[in-house]
């Protein structure tokens, strides 16, 4: 007998909240940088780049394995990979071992379970694609903030201090236990399960191009895919630029502001990013793809302009407002991806199609690199913020260009 679908949703939130801790690398890496004083910033930063690449590969592998393994096995495999990854990372004596453990195993595990959870939940909530994506991704989005705070509280750092090793090992054990338990409470529904819970499956709208069941090859042959894909890269790249440079932006405007306050202000991006995922996911269900995509672009551009004003006027209060608004509007990206793929290209091939669409992350991740280059060239974050505002405006062109599926 299947449980109420909202119980599965709650379990899904717990799993993505756990899997999202890989995004806390900027905080997790601080004690490592203090311990391995001969390691460069570039060497440490490469860990996260490898992690994101592994995430995409894991997401793709999860999509290809969908239907061949029960969802609970996806969850258990991810838990085992997380444990192995953090175990290796906790014993790292060289960047290579860190790359393999955290970058390879943990990144792959996060992508593998990410695909499994969203695929299963899209099947449980065919009538609320945007909303359920937003709720689940809220957990994924705020994970780094929660984990970062806990990690900082229990992990002292400094030259010769190895407390981070115990913290990494602890993460591995906790994730293994959480995923082992959650796996027992997770399953995909049958049509009878949905009918028993009075779920109304939306009728297909083939006359409008929606509700089709297209495989990945058919999907990528359509102009709508590439326009949406470019939209995700544009918005995602701008978001990555913000995330990678948030602390620097806050310090440029408030050089006398204490580090603890800056960390809290930067954390607002994660919190409101999570809230934005629920809001825009629900908006997608109610108003559709066009309105949601346009709102994301407009809001992100406006939010970036607020930060431009903060730098120009040296007003720290505007930094706070800008981070809140940017985080909230950036939150519209991921639930839109999940809902769009399901609504536009069908549920049958969703796991693979979703993983293909998520390859945008490979290109979008260079947003942080672009931001760094702009800062090095100008000596100010103003150019980065102008790049973000322009990206939001350009994303509108891609959003408006999608005329049909």
Protein architecture, described:
The protein has 405 residues and is mainly alpha-helical. Helices cover 78% and strands 0% of the residues. The protein has 18 helices and no strands. α1 runs antiparallel to α5 (95-124), α4 runs antiparallel to α5 and α12 (289-313) packs antiparallel against α18 (382-401). The longest helix has 31 residues, at 223-253. It starts with a helix and ends with a helix.
SSE inventory with pairings:
Blueprint: H1 5-19, H2 25-35, H3 41-65, H4 71-90, H5 95-124, H6 129-154, H7 163-182, H8 191-196, H9 216-220, H10 223-253, H11 259-287, H12 289-313, H13 316-330, H14 333-345, H15 350-357, H16 360-364, H17 366-378, H18 382-401
Number of strands: 0
How would you describe the oligomerization state of the chains in this entry? single chain
**Structural classification:** mainly alpha
**Distance separating the two termini:** 38 Å
Fill in the keyword field for this structure.
405 residues, mainly alpha
Short description:
By secondary structure, the chain is mostly helical. The protein has helices spanning 5-19, 25-35, 41-65, 71-90, 95-124, 129-154, 163-182, 191-196, 216-220, 223-253, 259-287, 289-313, 316-330, 333-345, 350-357, 360-364, 366-378, 382-401.
